[in-house]
Design goal:
The protein is α/β, with parallel strands linked by helices. The chain contains 28 helices and 27 strands.
Length: 812
């Protein structure tokens, strides 16, 4: 069914034709109201509207059952019941719950047939009724009804309510666009309070529930009171809307006024030969673009954007976007370069001043400088410094920039997960900016800086893209001469930039990215190197930072060595510097209190400043034990020593592994057990030991993950020691991968592991024979202090490690 929302009051609201139709074809309203109505009436549902008594309502009826209802009513007495539907109820499959309890008896006063089996009817509301009982539902609803009779009450209260309602209705008509002025005039001419309430309620913009509340209220005073409430609410809504409309109109008038004034000002400035702010800005941008040495493609794009900018109003949201873009184009160093320092001896002197040792890195930088001196169009190298924390990777980048006479830019890539951080955001996004590469170039102010990409091994990836993949173009000399940032959308030449990446490990760097970089490993420092670094760099630096004179602070080499061995356990020098900083602060406190220098830090003062020693040489101070072997491991922070403990328990042959071992390390333990079973008789071990015993292998420091095959020989020695009840030499460390046949295979990280043993006070190390070549990387002062035993099979390891006979030095 479709209903028209137009309402008509009898006679007052109808057209002349409709009035004549009522007068000719219908009895008077009062006669209809006084007639006796049938006990049973067909019920026509009304959706989204309410029929009030003494009100005429036109609407279109569709649907076979409802058209049949209308036709049957017209052929009879033209009387039917009209009830509004609740909430979401539809005109199909109706039930009693879908109807309100109160309705209005209506009389069809006009019927017009329409195409597609529809009819348009005009129904006059007569009196209210309520449903007593539903009789049937097919072909349309029929119900027994009870007429609700209402009496007109005249009192001072009703008169006051009527006047208030009329006054409020007048104000609503003045503000409501959906009510004509004639509606208020009609209301003034209605004398009956109930009829007035019905007329106003039917014309107000209320929902069905609110109208039904008014219709269902039996008491006239209460009905007029509720109508006053709804009129007041509607009036408040209309007043708010009116204020908003007024504000909008005022703003539009203001904008138009400003526009006309600006146009007049522009005309006056043109007459005077002056430029307005926008024109001046456009002119300034054009002059800057013309003065720059831009590539043709970039110049064309910049001129196009300036042309777009000149056509836009400064109030346009695109104006600042284009202006920011042009600022980036202007401020980038397209043709600005720094002149390289080509004095190789001076560059070497600067590198030596800033860093102790690190000869490989220094040699590589000097090689680049030498080649650049001979061939100026050489592309910038792409280096990757790999080493434990605190060995000087980042500070080395600054030193290289100083040696070459270039600007230095550092960008930390740790934790970056968005590809747009590298390549920038497209300008369609609000707040878009170029990526970190272009931002760094702008910050440097030259197109050939030393650009450090710190923590390249800690780049992440998620749904926003893979930053490591975006770096492939940046770090490829064959592609980065035309690097396109998403924000700029024009190529920028990065081929003259010297990129230096830093990492702690290589495992997390994608192979394609790793392939584009020249890897240079930075190992941990020896004690002598740390002492030299402390004396040459750290102590002077901390004295300056804490307001002390270098000559007033005396820390001898032996004291520095104690700090290194007893208060730090690291490959780099960060913790060493922190401890030196603590000593300097303690001294600065004394100076501030009036104590005079110089200040000599001896062992007693060291304990006073730093407290008791934090690390002990547990290996050197221990003793030979059964089932405990000392191994060597490589970690991100350098080399470490680790202990492998084995105990034999009564059981059924299970192998228990604890200590947070990784998958590869667990496999090494299983291989080690098989190797032990194969050599059981050689060491007077019962061949069936595994049938009656459980073997429990533990690696202490269980909170730290451990993995890799290099602890294989250490596990074999620990197991045989526990089973044969033979102690292991506690001052001997070992590393090597074991096979089922007992061969000892080479491992990596020899230098770091040897330095770890050296720091722990161990002077005897078992290494695979094939790792002999790696000993060349070990510093000479360390090799002089160490005894290396190179082995090829497990039997040699057992002969050396178990305290069964004297150790035989294979190689020194």
């Amino acid at each position: 069914m479709e209903w028209n929302n137009a309402w008509f009051i009898l006679e007052e609201g109808l057209t002349e034709e409709e009035k004549n139709s009522f007068q000719e074809n219908s009895p008077s309203l009062e006669e209809d109201k006084e007639n006796d109505f049938p006990e049973e009436l067909p019920i026509l549902p009304l959706k989204d509207n309410v029929l009030f008594p003494e009100i005429a309502l036109p609407w279109v009826v569709t649907g076979e059952p409802w058209v049949k209802l209308i036709n049957d009513v017209v052929l009879d007495k033209k009387i039917l019941g009209v009830i509004s539907l609740r909430g979401e109820a539809k005109g199909e499959n109706l039930s009693p719950e879908d109807f309100y309890e109160i309705g209005v008896i209506g009389k069809i006063s006009r019927l017009i047939k329409l195409p597609e089996d529809a009819v348009q009817v005009l129904i006059l509301g007569l009196v209210k009724f309520r449903i007593k009982e539903w009789v049937r539902w097919e072909p349309y609803p029929v119900a027994k009804i009870e007429v609700i009779k209402e009496e007109e009450i005249k009192s001072d209260e009703v008169e006051a309510l009527v006047r208030n309602v009329v006054s409020l209705f007048q104000q609503v008509v003045e503000l409501a666009p959906y009510l004509p002025r004639e509606a208020f005039i009609t209301a003034l001419n209605i004398n009956k309070p109930s009829r007035l309430a019905n007329f106003i309620a039917s014309n107000l913009n209320l929902d069905v529930e609110s109208k039904m509340e008014i219709l269902s209220t039996p008491d006239l005073s209460t009905r007029l009171t509720r109508l006053s409430f709804y009129l007041t609410r509607e009036l408040e809504i209309l007043q708010i809307g009116s204020r908003i409309q007024s504000q909008v109109q005022q703003e539009m008038a203001k904008n138009q006024r400003e526009y006309f004034l600006r146009e007049q000002l522009k005309a006056i400035q043109q007459e005077l030969g002056e430029l307005d702010e926008k024109s001046s800005e456009i002119k300034e941008l054009k002059e800057k673009i013309e003065s720059l040495d831009l590539p043709p493609e970039v110049r064309k794009e910049a001129e196009k954007e300036i042309e777009r900018l000149s056509r836009l109003s400064p109030n346009s949201f695109e104006y600042p976007v284009i202006r920011n873009y042009l600022d980036w184009i202007i401020e980038l160093p397209w043709g600005v370069s720094t002149e390289d320092n080509l004095d190789i001896d001076l560059a070497k002197k600067i590198l030596d001043e800033d860093h102790h040792d690190l000869e490989k890195v220094k040699e590589r930088v000097l090689e680049y400088l030498a080649v650049y001196k001979l061939k100026r169009d050489i592309k910038g190298p792409i280096l990757c410094f790999v080493g434990p924390p605190g060995v000087g990777k980042t500070s080395l980048g600054k030193s290289i920039a100083r040696a070459l006479g270039r600007k230095f830019v550092r960008v930390s890539l740790g934790g970056i997960r968005d590809e747009a951080e590298i390549r920038g955001h497209r300008r369609t996004y609000v707040g878009a900016l170029p990526g970190k590469i272009i931002q760094g170039i702008r910050k440097a102010g030259t197109n050939n800086p030393v650009f450090m990409l710190d923590e390249v091994d800690k780049i992440g990836a998620d749904f926003r893209g893979d930053p490591a993949s975006a770096l492939l173009e940046v770090l490829d000399p064959e592609q980065n001469y035309s690097f396109v940032d998403h924000y700029l959308d024009v190529p920028f030449d990065l081929s003259r930039v010297m990129f230096i990446a830093t990492a702690n490990v290589l495992d997390t760097i994608p192979p394609p990215l790793l392939d584009r970089m020249e890897i240079i490993f930075l190992s941990g420092y020896t004690d002598l190197e740390k002492i030299a670094i402390a004396q040459r760099y750290l102590i002077p630096k901390q004295c300056e930072e804490n307001g002390l004179r270098v000559e007033d602070v005396v820390i001898e080499a032996d004291v520095i060595r104690k700090i290194i061995r007893e208060y730090t356990r690291e490959a780099g020098v960060r913790n060493l510097e922190r401890n030196i900083a603590t000593i300097c602060r303690k001294i600065a406190k004394g100076v501030a209190q009036g104590v005079q220098g110089p200040f000599v830090v001896d062992e007693a003062k060291l304990r006073e400043f730093l407290g008791p020693r934090r690390f002990l040489d547990e290996v050197m101070e221990g003793k030979d034990e059964i089932g405990v072997a000392t191994g060597l491991a490589w970690t991100e922070s350098g080399g470490e020593i680790l202990f492998v403990e084995t105990v034999v328990l009564s059981g059924k042959g299970s192998l228990l592994l604890t200590g947070n071992m990784g998958e590869i390390m667990q496999e090494s333990a299983k291989i080690a057990l098989s190797c032990v079973r194969a050599r059981a008789e050689e060491w007077n071990i019962s061949p069936d030991f595994y049938e009656k015993n459980d073997i429990h292998v533990h690696v202490p420091a269980g909170a730290i993950p451990k993995d890799g095959p290099s602890a294989g020989i250490t596990m074999v020695v620990s197991m045989i020691s526990a089973l044969a009840r033979v102690p292991v030499h506690h001052d001997l460390a070992m590393t090597g991968e074991i096979t089922l046949t007992g061969k000892v295979l080479p491992i990596g990280g020899v230098k770091e592991k040897v330095l770890a043993a050296y720091r722990a006070g161990i002077r005897k190390i078992i290494l695979p024979q094939e790792n002999e070549k790696d000993l060349q990387e070990v510093p000479e002062e360390v090799k002089k202090m160490m005894n290396f035993f190179l082995v090829e099979n497990i039997n040699q390891v057992l002969d050396l490690a178990l305290a069964k006979e004297e150790l035989i030095e294979i190689n020194n």
